[in-house]
Amino acid sequence: MKINGYELALTEEELDEILTKKTREIVLLDKESQEYKSLTEGNKKALDHLVAAAKYFNIVAEEQDHELNIELHRGLEKAAQTSSYAAKALRLFNMFRGVEGHNGVDLEPIQIFKGVKGSQGRNFYPSDLSVSEFHSIIKRMLEEGRNEDVQKIFSVRTMVRRDGSDLKAIDYTEYFKDIFSKAANELEVAAHYTTDEAFKDFLGWQAQALIQNNEDMDMLADKHWAVLQNNTQLEFTIGRESYDDKLSPTIYDNPELLAMIEERGIEVNSKDMLGARAGIVNKKGTDLILQFKEQLPEIAKLMPHCDKYEQKVTGGGEMKQTMVDADIAILCGDYAQCRGGITLAQNLPNNDKLAVKTGGGRRNVYHRQVRQSNDQERIKKILDRLVAPAYHQYYDSEADHWFVIGHENGHSLGPDNTYQRALGNYKSTIEEHKADMVSITFMPEYVKTGVITEEMLKKIYTTWVVKRLFLKAQPVEVHRVAELIHFNYLLDRGAFSFDVEHKVHIHFDKFHQAAYDLLEETIALQLSKSPVKAKAFIDKYTKWGEHSQYIAKIEQEVGLKNYIELEIHF
Description:
Strand content: 5-15%
Radius of gyration: 23 Å
Helix content: 40-55%
Largest sheet: 5 strands, mixed
Structural class: alpha+beta
Strand order of the largest sheet: 8-9-10-12-11
């Protein structure tokens, strides 16, 4: 079957297999929930408009991801009206929010259309732009003294297009002008209805940031968002993450060109893929998260090499970090690109954003509906096959949430974006790995202060190993690559081991020191600013050994639901 001249790469039978046997559903909030019913009437109306605003970012992210996404999405929608085959392909497209996506198992992305695959620069850059041509054009533009044009190319918020023999950067507010205007209008209407004054103020700034080509407006919106804590029922975020652009960081693999760029004071950043979420702040869940927050200044003092970089978290005054647990009504754009996984939480703005650079705070938001979508029957089978019986009592799905809290807090600790960015295409893997290790390394500190118990600590260690480090396949996505690093290092250091039946035993007494040593090595790596050392580190600790192979085999025998579909009721 062809859609707009492109043939579907999967048969209808293959799509049936994916959709009926390999897909798990995450059910988001609906209007019958107590959380929604507890809102003021004004906030109920506001939430409807926040959801409408968020939906526009599906279009934005599809355009950023692949040049054919919009065209083929429309073609599938039209064909799906009369064809069950096309309807099934459309469901997969909506799960990926694009023409391809990793499924968490296969090394290569699953393609929906034959010959339609993503490029290194996604659609942030022309799809036919090779690394060598990219570097050549940048070098020539620098030699011609066009430093400002080059800086715009390396902005987090520009789409880059060919302009004759040159490249030209177009700010998101111009490239997506019509869509951003519609989203901004919905935010302004939501601001009119909401009964929360601080949230109303934030929405006004965020609406303006969408229609003004001015990075200061993003900064002001971020700063107003980051201080929302106890003064709103609602949550809305335009997420800006830079995992997808693999072309910009290749500059760090070209020492000569990098030197030219740095001599001119130009900052090389990866592009932001945009997403949006809307939901309701959950007070009970937020109260637990804030208990972890209180310990951050003291943990900052315990970080390895903490005297060699400026701490983003200090003990003086009120810490510029807000945290909320949220019941999620909708996830769109980057948040909804379910490609081998889905976001459980975020700590934003990232260090490359002007709000953080100018002293603004950060905000953690946790996704309740996503983390609560556990398959208890499958978990029991994994425990029976891969975990020694004495440790079954320590597996607790809620313990993974405690780990995630520590992970998101971990992004606020350690060397800043100057060090992270210098690792080029390895920066995201190393940073996610670091955040994981901050969480695991300092969990004993929460025991000392009474936030968690010794029993809970054992549950965190055990659940983390089983849920996170038991990989289903050789990884390619940055979070999973980081987890393979943890697995190999901590196995070598005796934090856990396997018996003759391939069942894991957790050695609680060895866990902290092994984790601290790995974190210390990781911070030193970030401080080195060396992509070469980063690659060597990743290569060293990502061997796909016999234990990983066996675990993946069992994971697949038990049955994988490695595709994700969101059930949205708003």
